[in-house]
Amino acid sequence: MPVNIPRDLPARAILEDEGIFVMSDERARSQDIRPMRIAILNLMPTKEATETQLLRVLGSTPLQVEVTLLHMASHASRNTAPEHLEAFYATFADVEDRYFDGMVVTGAPIELLDFEAVDYWPEMTQILDWSREHVYSTIHICWGAQAALYRHYGVPKYELPQKLSGVFDHRVLRPDSALLRGFDERFRAPHSRHTDVHAADIAATGAVDILATSDEAGVLLAATPDNRQVFITGHPEYDRDTLSREYRRDRDAGLGTAMPANYYPHHDETRTPVLNWRSHGVLLYANWLNHCVYQRVPFEQSGT
């Protein structure tokens, strides 16, 4: 079933070429069903690439999804054209009186900054606090997950000796979780970050369950028991070449970042990476949309 996005959004043509079912506002309004209203708070500098990644996994579900893209009003984006933001994005002020069935909060390449040193942290905390009353279920990704764990539960982040980058093996700890229905006992997912959260700190909150973890990469997936707050420290939505582009960017900037682990065949960066995490990434978002949002949210939502 379709994801409902603006006709002129650049991601639309890419997704249509891949066979992802997208729909116009006109066709959506002609159907006698209510779409899932999903907000995407896009904190990534390369917003168009992130839009495409997330819309791809959201558009691979059996539900109609109406997406609202959000950006930070208190931060000037240097990598996305102002015309793109003006045409396709809203700010928190535009939506603060609305209710959403779900929200996705992306990561951002700012893990080495203290949370309070991020220029949009006051706006970020406002949105995170608002989401607990105005969004039925929220997925937080990478830095977004660390920020939400810190804001809601006081969980700290820790700087890693070197950037964690690669595709890692994970094991399911809670096969009974709705988020992990249909998962293999072990599955792969990409990570790309400079900081970490510790399982012991998450467990100490008494409010968040750890659902999937890796011996190499640590906690991947955690959630509150009602799945209304979901935390993903990795990037199951990443494209085949995303880690490669990040690695080459860091290398060209002289940052000394190591080659992504378990990514290039035979650890040879001239070879095309094998895309071996997509199915579980799609399944994770499908489970979230179906079991944690669609099956539980009221038909007419005016509060949570």
UniProtKB/TrEMBL annotation:
Q: Site Important for substrate specificity: which residues?
A: S192
Q: Does the keyword Transmembrane apply?
A: no
Q: Does the keyword Cytoplasm apply?
A: yes
Which pathway does UniProt place it in? Answer: Amino-acid biosynthesis; L-methionine biosynthesis via de novo pathway; O-acetyl-L-homoserine from L-homoserine: step 1/1
Q: Which reactions fall under this protein's catalytic activity? A: L-homoserine + acetyl-CoA = O-acetyl-L-homoserine + CoA
> Catalytic residues per the record?
C142 (acyl-thioester intermediate), H235 (proton acceptor), E237
Pfam families membership: HTS (PF04204)
Record keywords: Acyltransferase, Amino-acid biosynthesis, Cytoplasm, Methionine biosynthesis, Transferase
- EC number per UniProt: 2.3.1.31
Q: Kindly report the protein's main subcellular placement as a broad class.
A: cytoplasm
Which GO terms fall under biological process for this protein? L-methionine biosynthetic process from homoserine via O-succinyl-L-homoserine and cystathionine
Positions of the site: Important for acyl-CoA specificity?
A: E111
What superkingdom heads the lineage?
A: Bacteria
One GO cellular component term of this record is:
cytoplasm
User: Which family does the similarity line name?
Assistant: Belongs to the MetA family.
As for what it does, the entry says:
Transfers an acetyl group from acetyl-CoA to L-homoserine, forming acetyl-L-homoserine.
Known NCBIfam families for this protein?
metA
Q: Which PANTHER family does the record match to this protein?
A: HOMOSERINE O-SUCCINYLTRANSFERASE (PTHR20919:SF0)
Could you tell me what this protein is called? Homoserine O-acetyltransferase
